[in-house]
Amino acid sequence: MQRFYFNLYNTEHSQEDTEGQLFASRERAGMEALRILHDVARDEMPGGRHLTITVKVLDEKRDQIFEASLILDSAWT
Q1: Does residue 66 fall inside a structural domain?
Q2: Which of 1, 53, 61, 76 is deepest in the core (most CB within 10 A)?
Q3: Are the CB atoms for 59 and 65 separated by under 8 Å?
Q4: Taking 80 as the threshold, does the pLDDT of residue 71 lie above it?
Q5: Is residue 77 part of a domain?
Q6: What is the overall mean pLDDT for the chain?
Q7: Residue 47: what pLDDT?
Q8: For the chain, how many helices (H) and strands (E)?
C-alpha cells in the first residue's frame, strides 16, 4: 500500500491534505480523485453559477502525480 495526498482547490478556497490515504496503486488513487470531484460538485453546485474544482494527487514524496478538474457553468436563459 502507498500513501497518497489529495489537495483540493475550488473557486473560493483550497484544502491541503495533511494525512493522506492508503491505496494499492496510482490508478486507485486517481479513481479516488474523481470520486472527490463528484462529491464536492454535488455539495457545492446549488450555491453557485460557476464552479471550478481541481484535485491534485501527490505521492509519498509529495510530488504531484495526477490532476483532475471539473468546470461547471450554469445560467438561466
Answers
A1: yes
A2: 53
A3: yes
A4: yes
A5: no
A6: 90
A7: 59
A8: 1, 5
All 3 cell numbers of residue 56?
491534485
Q: What is the pLDDT of residues 38-67, one digit of tens each?
A: 998 888 766 567 888 999 999 999 999 999
Grid cell 488513487 — which residue?
29
pLDDT, position 72: 82
Q: How many domains does the chain have?
A: 1
Contact indicator for 62, 43 with CB cutoff of 8 Å: no
Assigned C-alpha cell, 30: 486517481
Query: Helices (DSSP H) in 1-77: which residue ranges?
Result: 26-44
In a domain, 42, yes or no: yes
Question: Residue 15 is which amino acid?
Answer: Q
State whether residue 66 is helix, strand or coil. strand
Question: Which of 43, 52, 47, 44 minimizes the C-alpha distance to 73?
Answer: 52
20: which residues sit within 8 A by CB, 6+ positions away? Answer: 3, 4, 5, 6, 60
